[in-house]
UniProtKB/TrEMBL annotation, chains A, B:
PANTHER family linked to this entry: CRP FAMILY TRANSCRIPTIONAL REGULATORY PROTEIN (PTHR24567), FUMARATE AND NITRATE REDUCTION REGULATORY PROTEIN (PTHR24567:SF75)
Residue span(s) of domain HTH crp-type: 157-230
SUPFAM superfamilies: cAMP-binding domain-like, Winged helix' DNA-binding domain
Alphabetical list of InterPro entries matching this protein: cNMP-bd_dom, cNMP-bd_dom_sf, Env_Response_Regulators, HTH_CRP, RmlC-like_jellyroll, WH-like_DNA-bd_sf, WH_DNA-bd_sf
Any single GO CC term annotated in Swiss-Prot or TrEMBL for this entry: cytosol
Transmembrane parts of this sequence: none
Positions of the Cyclic nucleotide-binding domain: 47-143
Gene3D superfamilies xrefs: Jelly Rolls, Winged helix-like DNA-binding domain superfamily/Winged helix DNA-binding domain
Gene Ontology molecular function terms on file: DNA binding; DNA-binding transcription factor activity
Pfam families linked: cNMP_binding, HTH_Crp_2
Protein name per Swiss-Prot or TrEMBL: FixK
Length: 253, 253
DNA sequence: CGCGGTTTTGAAAAGGATCAAGGGAAGTGG
DNA sequence: CCACTTCCCTTGATCCTTTTCAAAACCGCG
């Protein structure tokens, strides 16, 4: 009775972009504006690569807007095992969905520009605006959706699917900024491994394998040439499966 | 402004260790009351075991309060692989942190009593109350915290640690209801496996191993005698490590 | 140009998954 | 109340993916 049915499968296929085109009500827009305004009142800070902007367990007295650069959010468990729960990119809000303490350490992957506002002024300024919970929820919503996706990745995907998912997602946000087929990957292999629940060696090997199949080609340590995006998406495992075959045919050298 | 207090465990506060001591401001309490009130206006529905109360992808026109029983939230990925992202227990709110569509299917594990309210009245009634985002965020917060913990579990823990984490968490919520050392585990092995990112066989084997080490002893399919809670906690892998040795000594038969 | 850290590659080992069968409890019908 | 069916769970044996350990290659940098 609890077994998967085909009905479920079809219905669920829509992926996780669910929130990319989330509701833009007047409220949302209005709130968005007041939000930018709030952040604009504070000067941008420059954070060098490797520096943390907040620590797990610290009281979340501020939140941050990432203006430029890439940040990793992570937790350390037990004996120094690190789990990168998410990467954040330009435009993202860090700590907006928090109360109390930070649940993660946020560390610059690349040099970053951030703006910071106190939680108090955030609550005071932004919350009263449009209160039917829409806007307030939005960052938390995205976070939740991302977390769910990550859980799926971690519990059901193999190394290749994980890596392809990761690259495809990176590529898709890159697309928004409109570019060619070379994708910047600012994070180290260790970062990627810690995000995907793999070891650095497995990441490396899997990448090599993808290269040999002509899906993506590493160019230096931090760039990837996307040769076959369709295939990449296929291999990521959450796509519709109907092209699987053709993809393999195309991709095999 | 957000200091924890010990009194007054309202409906929402009881679960989920992380936020057990979350903020109980006047606002929160007030909102909690208005929330209970809202839910109390709707009659309880009886949901038989195995029945779904909402489906992934459906528009979230309602939210639910779980009055009694256990519910699993899951997503189906690709070819019928099921990921149980969370279990929900009496007092939990389902769908409160959503906008738009449900991100999961919610299905009764045991027979359940639920109350349901429309999202509209939830937003209208509850949101305007205390608007500085505190109360609104609480369910979402818990969810996020739980999701993060789950990511840690899935990316860094081995089968034994996963199972021990799971049992320990169950046991800790059980404790709140004050009972003896026999823990009810309403979900099937398959449910547990799909939640922990393992196969049913591995769950079974690991349980057997724990039994042979005298940590927990299965009594029938849905009960566990907790013999050595300290050890269980140790083995869950997110505890402080200082007792690791002694624990092993104690546990080895 | 040599040096330190990162990445790649290789070989061996381990932990789970998978495949296959057997056991047991709950429910059904006689 | 008992035989029978069924479903769920356990156990065993083998296979496969990923990890682990080790060393070589690469690359940016002083």
């Amino acid at each position: 009775m609890c077994r998967p049915t085909t009905r479920n499968t079809t219905m669920l296929m829509q992926k996780n972009q669910v929130f990319q085109h989330a509701e833009m009500t007047e409220e949302t827009i209005h709130a968005g504006q007041s939000l930018s305004a709030l952040f604009l009142t504070s000067a941008t800070e420059l954070v060098p690569a490797g520096r943390a902007v907040c620590w797990e367990g610290d009281e979340a007295k501020h939140l941050f807007q990432l203006v430029e650069g890439v940040i990793r959010l992570y937790r350390i468990v037990g004996d120094g095992r690190r789990v990168i729960t998410a990467f954040q990119f330009a435009g993202d809000l860090i700590g907006a969905s928090l109360q109390g303490d930070f649940l993660f350490t946020a560390e610059a992957v690349t040099e970053c520009k951030i703006r910071r506002v106190s939680r108090k002024s955030f609550d005071d300024e932004v919350a009263p605006v449009g209160c039917s919970s829409h806007r307030i929820h939005l960052p938390a919503l995205r976070e939740t959706a991302a977390a769910q996706e990550q859980m799926v990745l971690l519990s059901k995907k193999n190394a290749e699917e994980r890596l392809c998912s990761f690259i495809a997602k990176l590529a898709s946000r890159r697309n928004l900024q409109a570019r060619q087929s070379v994708l910047r990957v600012p994070m180290s292999r260790q970062d990627i491994a810690d995000h995907l629940g793999l070891t650095i060696e497995t990441v490396s090997r899997t990448l090599t394998k993808l290269a040999s199949r002509n899906v993506v080609i590493p160019e230096g340590r931090h760039d990837l040439r996307i040769v076959n995006l369709a295939c990449l998406t296929q291999l990521s495992g959450d796509a519709d499966d109907f092209l699987e075959e053709s993809c393999h045919r195309v991709s095999l050298h």
